[in-house]
Protein backbone atom coordinates (compact mmCIF):
# COMPACT_ATOMS: atom_id res chain seq x y z
CA UNK A 1 0.00 0.00 0.00
CA UNK A 2 1.19 3.51 -0.75
CA UNK A 3 -0.33 6.69 0.49
CA UNK A 4 -1.37 7.57 -3.04
CA UNK A 5 -3.71 4.61 -3.45
CA UNK A 6 -5.16 4.39 0.06
CA UNK A 7 -8.89 5.07 0.07
CA UNK A 8 -10.87 6.47 2.98
CA UNK A 9 -14.22 8.13 3.44
CA UNK A 10 -17.38 8.67 5.43
CA UNK A 11 -20.26 6.37 4.59
CA UNK A 12 -23.44 7.46 6.27
CA UNK A 13 -26.38 5.16 6.82
CA UNK A 14 -29.71 6.94 6.95
CA UNK A 15 -33.38 6.09 6.63
CA UNK A 16 -36.66 5.95 8.52
CA UNK A 17 -36.96 4.31 11.95
CA UNK A 18 -36.87 0.51 12.11
CA UNK A 19 -35.82 -0.27 8.55
CA UNK A 20 -32.70 -2.05 9.87
CA UNK A 21 -29.97 0.64 9.76
CA UNK A 22 -28.28 -0.47 12.98
CA UNK A 23 -28.48 -4.15 12.04
CA UNK A 24 -26.90 -3.32 8.67
CA UNK A 25 -24.10 -1.26 10.18
CA UNK A 26 -23.26 -4.09 12.58
CA UNK A 27 -23.04 -6.70 9.82
CA UNK A 28 -20.95 -4.35 7.69
CA UNK A 29 -18.52 -3.59 10.51
CA UNK A 30 -18.66 -7.16 11.83
CA UNK A 31 -19.20 -5.98 15.41
CA UNK A 32 -22.25 -5.26 17.47
CA UNK A 33 -21.60 -1.53 17.88
CA UNK A 34 -25.09 -0.22 17.42
CA UNK A 35 -28.03 -1.28 19.53
CA UNK A 36 -31.04 -2.90 17.92
CA UNK A 37 -34.65 -3.33 18.92
CA UNK A 38 -37.97 -3.75 17.20
CA UNK A 39 -38.98 -0.30 18.49
CA UNK A 40 -38.55 2.88 16.50
CA UNK A 41 -36.05 5.47 17.78
CA UNK A 42 -33.79 3.03 19.59
CA UNK A 43 -30.72 4.76 18.15
CA UNK A 44 -30.35 8.28 19.55
CA UNK A 45 -26.81 9.23 18.66
CA UNK A 46 -24.64 9.16 15.62
CA UNK A 47 -22.36 6.16 16.03
CA UNK A 48 -19.20 5.62 14.04
CA UNK A 49 -17.98 2.16 13.11
CA UNK A 50 -14.68 1.68 11.32
CA UNK A 51 -13.91 -0.92 8.74
CA UNK A 52 -10.20 -1.21 8.05
CA UNK A 53 -8.58 -2.96 5.10
CA UNK A 54 -4.92 -2.87 3.98
CA UNK A 55 -5.65 -0.11 1.52
CA UNK A 56 -8.90 1.38 2.75
CA UNK A 57 -10.74 2.71 5.77
CA UNK A 58 -14.50 3.08 5.70
CA UNK A 59 -15.95 5.28 8.42
CA UNK A 60 -19.54 4.13 8.75
CA UNK A 61 -22.02 6.14 10.72
CA UNK A 62 -25.31 4.82 11.93
CA UNK A 63 -27.87 7.51 12.63
CA UNK A 64 -31.20 7.84 14.43
CA UNK A 65 -34.17 7.30 12.13
CA UNK A 66 -35.41 10.28 10.18
CA UNK A 67 -38.52 11.75 11.73
CA UNK A 68 -40.43 14.97 12.36
CA UNK A 69 -39.14 16.32 15.69
CA UNK A 70 -41.76 16.25 18.47
CA UNK A 71 -39.59 17.23 21.44
CA UNK A 72 -36.06 18.52 22.20
CA UNK A 73 -34.47 15.06 22.14
CA UNK A 74 -35.88 14.54 18.63
CA UNK A 75 -34.35 17.84 17.50
CA UNK A 76 -30.97 16.68 18.69
CA UNK A 77 -31.48 13.30 17.00
CA UNK A 78 -32.36 14.98 13.69
CA UNK A 79 -29.36 17.28 13.86
CA UNK A 80 -27.19 14.12 13.88
CA UNK A 81 -28.97 13.06 10.69
CA UNK A 82 -28.48 16.43 8.99
CA UNK A 83 -24.83 16.54 10.00
CA UNK A 84 -24.29 13.12 8.51
CA UNK A 85 -25.61 14.36 5.16
CA UNK A 86 -23.08 17.16 5.11
CA UNK A 87 -19.90 15.13 5.56
CA UNK A 88 -20.86 12.02 3.57
CA UNK A 89 -18.66 10.66 0.79
CA UNK A 90 -21.26 7.99 0.16
CA UNK A 91 -24.84 7.96 1.44
CA UNK A 92 -26.45 4.61 2.13
CA UNK A 93 -30.18 5.21 2.17
CA UNK A 94 -31.90 2.23 3.76
CA UNK A 95 -35.53 1.36 3.38
CA UNK A 96 -37.48 -1.84 3.76
CA UNK A 97 -40.43 -3.28 1.91
CA UNK A 98 -43.02 -1.30 3.85
CA UNK A 99 -41.78 2.22 4.51
CA UNK A 100 -42.91 5.22 2.50
CA UNK A 101 -41.56 8.76 2.37
CA UNK A 102 -44.33 10.14 4.58
CA UNK A 103 -42.98 12.75 7.03
CA UNK A 104 -39.49 12.75 5.53
CA UNK A 105 -39.99 14.52 2.21
CA UNK A 106 -37.74 17.37 3.38
CA UNK A 107 -34.87 15.08 4.29
CA UNK A 108 -35.21 13.30 0.95
CA UNK A 109 -34.88 16.67 -0.73
CA UNK A 110 -31.64 17.19 1.22
CA UNK A 111 -30.34 13.74 0.27
CA UNK A 112 -30.98 14.47 -3.40
CA UNK A 113 -29.03 17.72 -3.09
CA UNK A 114 -26.24 16.46 -0.83
CA UNK A 115 -23.88 15.87 -3.76
CA UNK A 116 -22.64 12.49 -2.52
CA UNK A 117 -23.53 9.31 -4.43
CA UNK A 118 -26.52 7.50 -2.94
CA UNK A 119 -26.80 3.72 -2.62
CA UNK A 120 -30.45 2.77 -2.29
CA UNK A 121 -30.54 -0.30 -0.06
CA UNK A 122 -33.82 -2.21 0.20
CA UNK A 123 -33.58 -4.31 3.34
CA UNK A 124 -35.58 -7.22 4.76
CA UNK A 125 -36.04 -8.94 1.41
CA UNK A 126 -36.21 -12.18 3.40
CA UNK A 127 -39.80 -11.05 4.01
CA UNK A 128 -40.47 -10.40 0.33
CA UNK A 129 -43.56 -11.66 -1.38
CA UNK A 130 -43.93 -11.91 -5.15
CA UNK A 131 -43.53 -8.60 -7.03
CA UNK A 132 -43.15 -6.64 -3.80
CA UNK A 133 -39.48 -5.88 -4.41
CA UNK A 134 -40.20 -4.63 -7.92
CA UNK A 135 -42.95 -2.36 -6.65
CA UNK A 136 -40.81 -0.98 -3.80
CA UNK A 137 -37.85 -0.42 -6.12
CA UNK A 138 -39.99 1.61 -8.47
CA UNK A 139 -41.49 3.63 -5.61
CA UNK A 140 -38.10 4.65 -4.20
CA UNK A 141 -36.25 5.21 -7.46
CA UNK A 142 -38.92 7.78 -8.33
CA UNK A 143 -38.05 9.65 -5.12
CA UNK A 144 -34.35 9.16 -4.46
CA UNK A 145 -31.70 9.97 -7.02
CA UNK A 146 -29.76 6.76 -6.48
CA UNK A 147 -26.58 5.57 -8.18
CA UNK A 148 -27.65 1.98 -7.72
CA UNK A 149 -30.27 -0.17 -5.98
CA UNK A 150 -29.18 -3.03 -3.72
CA UNK A 151 -31.74 -5.48 -2.27
CA UNK A 152 -30.38 -7.08 0.92
CA UNK A 153 -31.25 -8.91 4.09
CA UNK A 154 -29.13 -7.60 6.97
CA UNK A 155 -30.62 -10.24 9.23
CA UNK A 156 -29.63 -13.12 6.95
CA UNK A 157 -26.43 -11.53 5.71
CA UNK A 158 -27.65 -11.59 2.11
CA UNK A 159 -25.96 -9.38 -0.53
CA UNK A 160 -23.89 -7.48 2.03
CA UNK A 161 -20.68 -7.95 -0.03
CA UNK A 162 -22.40 -6.15 -2.88
CA UNK A 163 -22.84 -3.05 -0.64
CA UNK A 164 -19.17 -3.28 0.33
CA UNK A 165 -18.09 -3.42 -3.32
CA UNK A 166 -20.32 -0.50 -4.33
CA UNK A 167 -18.90 1.54 -1.45
CA UNK A 168 -15.27 0.73 -2.25
CA UNK A 169 -15.86 1.67 -5.90
CA UNK A 170 -16.94 5.14 -4.75
CA UNK A 171 -14.52 5.76 -1.88
CA UNK A 172 -12.12 8.67 -2.49
CA UNK A 173 -8.35 8.32 -2.38
CA UNK A 174 -7.47 9.66 1.05
CA UNK A 175 -5.24 8.71 4.01
CA UNK A 176 -7.00 7.04 6.97
CA UNK A 177 -8.99 9.38 9.23
CA UNK A 178 -8.62 7.26 12.36
CA UNK A 179 -6.08 4.86 13.82
CA UNK A 180 -6.35 1.68 11.76
CA UNK A 181 -6.44 -0.48 14.88
CA UNK A 182 -9.60 1.23 16.10
CA UNK A 183 -13.15 0.00 15.66
CA UNK A 184 -15.05 3.08 16.72
CA UNK A 185 -14.62 6.65 17.92
CA UNK A 186 -16.75 6.06 21.02
CA UNK A 187 -15.38 5.39 24.52
CA UNK A 188 -16.15 2.12 26.30
CA UNK A 189 -18.52 3.88 28.71
CA UNK A 190 -20.71 4.87 25.81
CA UNK A 191 -21.14 1.25 24.73
CA UNK A 192 -21.84 0.19 28.29
CA UNK A 193 -24.73 2.67 28.51
CA UNK A 194 -26.02 1.73 25.05
CA UNK A 195 -26.04 -2.00 25.86
CA UNK A 196 -28.09 -1.38 29.00
CA UNK A 197 -30.39 0.92 27.05
CA UNK A 198 -30.97 -1.84 24.51
CA UNK A 199 -32.08 -4.21 27.26
CA UNK A 200 -34.47 -1.55 28.53
CA UNK A 201 -35.90 -1.21 25.01
CA UNK A 202 -36.44 -4.95 24.73
CA UNK A 203 -37.83 -5.46 28.26
CA UNK A 204 -40.30 -2.63 28.79
CA UNK A 205 -43.36 -1.47 26.91
CA UNK A 206 -44.88 1.77 25.64
CA UNK A 207 -43.35 5.04 26.89
CA UNK A 208 -40.87 3.48 29.33
CA UNK A 209 -37.92 2.95 26.95
CA UNK A 210 -38.36 6.42 25.47
CA UNK A 211 -38.43 8.03 28.91
CA UNK A 212 -35.22 6.32 29.93
CA UNK A 213 -31.60 7.39 29.70
CA UNK A 214 -28.61 5.51 31.07
CA UNK A 215 -25.52 7.18 32.50
CA UNK A 216 -22.37 5.34 33.54
CA UNK A 217 -21.30 6.61 36.92
CA UNK A 218 -18.31 4.34 37.33
CA UNK A 219 -16.29 2.25 34.88
CA UNK A 220 -13.14 0.66 36.29
CA UNK A 221 -11.16 -2.22 34.93
CA UNK A 222 -8.46 -4.54 36.22
CA UNK A 223 -6.95 -7.72 34.72
CA UNK A 224 -9.94 -9.87 35.49
CA UNK A 225 -12.96 -7.68 35.93
CA UNK A 226 -14.79 -4.58 34.73
CA UNK A 227 -16.88 -2.83 37.38
CA UNK A 228 -19.72 -0.74 36.05
CA UNK A 229 -22.17 1.39 37.99
CA UNK A 230 -25.08 2.56 35.84
CA UNK A 231 -27.75 5.10 36.70
CA UNK A 232 -31.02 4.57 34.90
CA UNK A 233 -32.86 7.89 34.65
CA UNK A 234 -36.60 8.10 34.09
CA UNK A 235 -38.91 11.11 33.85
CA UNK A 236 -41.39 10.36 36.64
CA UNK A 237 -41.50 8.36 39.86
CA UNK A 238 -44.29 6.11 38.52
CA UNK A 239 -41.85 5.04 35.82
CA UNK A 240 -39.23 4.28 38.43
CA UNK A 241 -41.63 1.76 39.96
CA UNK A 242 -42.19 0.10 36.60
CA UNK A 243 -38.46 -0.13 35.87
CA UNK A 244 -37.82 -1.78 39.24
CA UNK A 245 -40.87 -4.02 39.03
CA UNK A 246 -42.57 -6.21 41.60
CA UNK A 247 -40.01 -7.16 44.29
CA UNK A 248 -37.28 -5.84 41.98
CA UNK A 249 -37.82 -8.63 39.48
CA UNK A 250 -37.86 -6.47 36.34
CA UNK A 251 -34.65 -4.59 37.07
CA UNK A 252 -32.95 -7.81 38.08
CA UNK A 253 -33.82 -9.35 34.72
CA UNK A 254 -32.47 -6.31 32.86
CA UNK A 255 -29.33 -6.46 35.00
CA UNK A 256 -28.66 -10.10 34.14
CA UNK A 257 -29.26 -9.62 30.41
CA UNK A 258 -27.14 -6.47 30.39
CA UNK A 259 -24.27 -8.12 32.21
CA UNK A 260 -24.24 -11.03 29.75
CA UNK A 261 -24.24 -8.65 26.78
CA UNK A 262 -21.54 -6.47 28.38
CA UNK A 263 -19.35 -9.53 28.98
CA UNK A 264 -19.79 -10.60 25.35
CA UNK A 265 -18.95 -7.09 24.12
CA UNK A 266 -15.90 -6.49 26.31
CA UNK A 267 -14.72 -10.12 26.38
CA UNK A 268 -14.28 -9.91 30.12
CA UNK A 269 -16.11 -10.61 33.34
CA UNK A 270 -18.37 -7.72 34.35
CA UNK A 271 -19.75 -6.69 37.72
CA UNK A 272 -22.78 -4.48 37.12
CA UNK A 273 -24.60 -2.32 39.63
CA UNK A 274 -27.73 -0.41 38.61
CA UNK A 275 -29.60 2.45 40.31
CA UNK A 276 -32.83 4.07 39.16
CA UNK A 277 -33.33 7.83 39.53
CA UNK A 278 -35.96 10.34 38.50
CA UNK A 279 -34.85 13.29 36.34
CA UNK A 280 -38.03 15.29 35.69
CA UNK A 281 -38.85 15.70 31.99
CA UNK A 282 -35.24 15.28 30.87
CA UNK A 283 -36.28 14.80 27.21
CA UNK A 284 -37.71 18.32 27.02
CA UNK A 285 -34.91 20.14 28.78
CA UNK A 286 -31.90 21.39 26.83
CA UNK A 287 -29.54 21.50 29.82
CA UNK A 288 -30.43 18.01 30.92
CA UNK A 289 -29.98 16.75 27.37
CA UNK A 290 -26.54 18.31 27.26
CA UNK A 291 -25.66 16.54 30.49
CA UNK A 292 -26.60 13.24 28.83
CA UNK A 293 -24.33 13.92 25.87
CA UNK A 294 -26.74 15.30 23.29
CA UNK A 295 -24.76 18.44 22.49
CA UNK A 296 -25.85 19.23 18.97
P1 LIG B 1 -33.13 0.87 12.77
O1 LIG B 1 -34.16 1.53 13.62
O2 LIG B 1 -33.27 1.29 11.33
O3 LIG B 1 -31.74 1.03 13.28
O4 LIG B 1 -33.49 -0.70 12.78
P2 LIG B 1 -32.88 -1.88 13.69
O5 LIG B 1 -31.55 -2.29 13.15
O6 LIG B 1 -32.95 -1.50 15.13
O7 LIG B 1 -33.90 -3.06 13.34
C1 LIG B 1 -35.30 -2.90 13.53
C2 LIG B 1 -35.95 -4.28 13.52
O8 LIG B 1 -35.86 -4.86 12.20
C3 LIG B 1 -35.26 -5.26 14.46
O9 LIG B 1 -36.26 -6.05 15.07
C4 LIG B 1 -34.38 -6.09 13.54
O10 LIG B 1 -34.11 -7.39 14.02
C5 LIG B 1 -35.24 -6.14 12.27
N1 LIG B 1 -34.45 -6.35 11.03
C6 LIG B 1 -33.32 -5.71 10.66
N2 LIG B 1 -32.86 -6.17 9.46
C7 LIG B 1 -33.74 -7.14 9.07
C8 LIG B 1 -33.81 -8.00 7.90
O11 LIG B 1 -32.98 -7.99 7.00
N3 LIG B 1 -34.89 -8.86 7.86
C9 LIG B 1 -35.83 -8.90 8.84
N4 LIG B 1 -36.83 -9.77 8.68
N5 LIG B 1 -35.78 -8.12 9.94
C10 LIG B 1 -34.75 -7.25 10.07
K1 LIG C 1 -35.05 0.22 15.95
MG1 LIG D 1 -30.99 2.18 14.85
TrEMBL record:
Residue stretches making up the Era-type G domain: 7-173
Membrane-topology descriptor: Peripheral membrane protein
HAMAP family, A to Z: GTPase_Era
G4, as annotated region: 123-126
One MF term in the entry's GO annotations: ribosomal small subunit binding
InterPro entries hit by this protein: G_ERA_dom, GTP-bd, GTPase_Era-like, KH_dom-like_a/b, KH_dom_type_2, KH_sf_prok-type, P-loop_NTPase, Small_GTP-bd
Binding site for GTP: 15-22, 62-66, 123-126
Region (G2): 41-45
Gene3D superfamilies, sorted: 3.30.300.20, P-loop containing nucleotide triphosphate hydrolases (3.40.50.300)
Family label: Belongs to the TRAFAC class TrmE-Era-EngA-EngB-Septin-like GTPase superfamily. Era GTPase family.
Region of interest: G3: 62-65
Region of interest (G1), ranges: 15-22
Stretches assigned to the KH type-2 domain: 204-280
GO terms under biological process: ribosomal small subunit assembly
Annotated stretches, region: G5: 152-154
Transmembrane region(s): none
Domain of life per record: Bacteria
Compartment(s) of residence: Cytoplasm; Cell inner membrane
Organism: Echinicola vietnamensis (strain DSM 17526 / LMG 23754 / KMM 6221)
Function, in words: An essential GTPase that binds both GDP and GTP, with rapid nucleotide exchange. Plays a role in 16S rRNA processing and 30S ribosomal subunit biogenesis and possibly also in cell cycle regulation and energy metabolism.
Gene, per the UniProt record: era
Alphabetically ordered keywords of this record: Cell inner membrane, Cell membrane, Cytoplasm, GTP-binding, Membrane, Nucleotide-binding, Ribosome biogenesis, RNA-binding, rRNA-binding
Name of this protein: GTPase Era
Amino acid sequence: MTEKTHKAGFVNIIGKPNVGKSTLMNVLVGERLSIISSKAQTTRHRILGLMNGDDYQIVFSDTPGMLKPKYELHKSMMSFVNLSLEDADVIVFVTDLYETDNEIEEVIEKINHAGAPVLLVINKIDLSKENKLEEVTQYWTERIKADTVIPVSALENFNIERIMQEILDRLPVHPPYYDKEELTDRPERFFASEIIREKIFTNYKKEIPYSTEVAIDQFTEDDKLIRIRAIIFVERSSQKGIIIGDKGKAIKHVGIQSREALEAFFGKQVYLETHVKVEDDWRKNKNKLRKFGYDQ
